[in-house]
Specification:
heterodimer, A: 402 residues, mainly alpha, Cytochrome Bc1 Complex, Chain D, domain 2, 2 domains, two-stranded antiparallel sheet, 15 helices, B: 116 residues, mainly beta, Immunoglobulin-like, four-stranded antiparallel beta sheet, 0% helix, globular
Chain lengths: 402, 116
């Protein structure tokens, strides 16, 4: 009932630039709770909230050549803190170029599933992919262990957390790369069954350290949060943090424009998958989205149900248990968080929109039809004025960390 | 475990059948938004051969993104796991009860708000 009395308190005490219905007010408050949220515990990674693991993970995240001999990139090459933990590019550039836009690592820890199609069920499982992707870091799991082993300081930190590094990782007579894929299969076949297990186990621990670091990369307070705090505490000064234009945009966001039906909660994301009906883009084959992600995550060696997980129970992996693919999820992509989104242009899974203005214009008119599946019926043309679209953009920009 | 709270009694008018609506005992008395949850069904009309559960957002033309699993606890109680109502808005939860090879479908309407 606190909220209701707050609602009455607000209308009399504070100077809002917009009139909010009680529901709009509740919706607004839900986007900025008094306590900033923390990523949920991750029982599949016992190092998830271990500060030493996070420290090691940070070094690994920024380490160029992490993926082994002949590789040059770091995670930060594409997830650059100066560029909103993304890369500012339409398509990521690694050892090749793909057809996907690089999402921010910031706030990724809040997701039950990561990647645009949710094809990984944890940050640690996710981190395995770029390391071995031929168009990204283009190295190998064995290569990573060799990199760590060749640096005394890293190795000692690694070993004090995880125990003895497998001897095979220090065996310089071996090929520098080994992985169960086509390219590095020679090195992989040269390993005994026992060594393969040791490599996978040590690799999984390394990924868990990277994940521990990523869990610390979250948004800070924004002008919008200060504004809401001002309303909660009846602090006139703080409540000026949101311009009248952004206040009107906020009202549209939670009300008429109904963005909140997918971009809800303190992250302004439901962490779910939706087909918003983007038209086919150039000659790129439209992505299948969520059904493909479900298939991949089930087969992933590093998913929470497999042997390298620290808790393989269904209780710790409930999200994996009841997933279904159906015609409604074809072409569906993960709803991105809108916190700090102003820093991560261009937008959408294929980076087709250069600005937030282009994004809201899309939602306003919903042009065309998607290449696969169908646009979710939640979405209707908004037919807002240019002034209102600018208000929406002003609100989204107010979600940037200060 | 699930705190048993009587949520809704008779919605005979809304249910597409004659019998009384099965009772649904939600955790903390209500269905949460965008979280996997379990609940219990109580067949006030006596035992049945089969019970299945589904949910839809009719105005959005889609259902759930999870597939719930129903297990029998005893003759008149069933446990439903893996429910998830992932979006705010109007939902309909359907419980299909089969007795003597005849199915009856009950519907529980409910609205979830983004701020819940």
């Amino acid at each position: 009932m606190g909220i209701i009395s707050l609602a009455f308190g607000l209308s009399s005490m504070m100077q809002l630039s917009v009139e909010l219905t009680e529901n709009e007010l509740r919706a607004m408050l839900s986007l900025s709770p008094p306590q900033a949220p923390a990523p949920r515990p991750k029982p599949t990674n016992v190092f998830a909230d271990n500060p030493d693991a996070a420290k090691l993970g940070e070094k690994l995240f920024f380490l160029e050549g992490l993926a082994g001999e002949g590789t040059t990139q770091s995670c930060a090459s594409c997830h650059n803190p100066e560029l909103g933990w993304s890369d500012g590019l339409q398509f990521a550039i690694g050892d090749g170029v793909g057809t996907l836009n690089t999402p921010a690592v910031r706030n990724a820890a809040f997701n039950n599933f990561v990647f645009w199609d949710g094809s990984a069920d944890s940050l640690w499982a996710q981190a395995a992919q770029p390391i071995e992707s031929p168009i990204e870091m283009h190295g190998s799991r064995y290569g990573v262990l060799r990199t760590i082993s060749s640096d005394e300081e890293l190795l000692s930190e690694w070993q004090s957390l995880f125990g003895q590094m497998p001897a095979v990782a220090q065996d310089l007579t071996r090929a520098p790369h080994a992985a169960p894929n086509e390219e590095f299969s020679a090195g992989w076949r040269a390993l005994t069954e026992e060594n393969r297990l040791a490599v996978n186990t040590a690799f999984a621990k390394t990924l868990k350290a990277i994940a521990a670091f990523e869990r610390t990369v979250v948004s800070g307070k924004s002008n919008f949060d200060l504004f809401v705090e001002g309303l909660r505490t009846e602090d006139e000064e703080l409540s000026k943090a949101l311009s009248p234009q952004a206040q009107r945009g906020m009202k549209l966001f939670v009300g008429e424009a109904n963005c909140i039906s997918c971009h809800f909660g303190p992250l302004l994301s439901d962490g779910q998958f939706h087909n918003i009906g983007l038209e086919p883009y150039k000659d790129i084959p439209p992505a299948i989205g969520r059904p493909g992600g479900i298939e991949k995550v089930r087969l992933d060696l590093f998913n929470g149900r497999n042997q390298f997980s620290d808790d393989t129970s269904w209780k710790a992996n409930g999200q994996m248990l009841y997933m279904i693919s159906n015609e409604h999820t074809v072409g569906a992509m993960k709803t991105p968080s809108l916190r700090d989104v102003a820093a991560t242009a261009p937008y959408m899974h294929d980076g087709r929109f250069k600005t937030l203005e282009e994004v809201v214009e899309f939602y306003n008119l919903l042009p065309g039809f998607p290449g696969v599946g169908h646009r979710e019926e939640t979405l209707n043309r908004l037919l807002l004025s240019d002034e209102q679209l600018a208000e929406l953009v002003a609100f989204i920009k107010s979600l940037s960390s200060l | 475990m699930i705190r048993k709270l009587l949520l809704l009694l008779m919605l005979g008018a809304l249910a597409s059948c004659q019998g009384p609506l099965p009772l649904m005992h939600f955790p903390d008395g209500r269905a949460p938004l965008n979280e996997i949850f379990s609940f219990e069904i109580e067949l006030v009309d006596g035992p049945a051969e089969n019970v299945s559960v589904d949910a839809d957002m009719p105005s959005h033309g889609h259902g759930m993104v999870t597939e719930p699993v129903v297990t029998k606890i005893d003759a008149t109680h069933y446990q439903v796991d893996g429910m998830m109502l992932h979006m705010p808005g109007y939902w309909e939860i359907y419980v299909e009860v089969t007795r003597d090879n005849e199915s009856e479908r009950f519907m529980l309407p409910l609205t979830l708000e983004a701020w819940e």
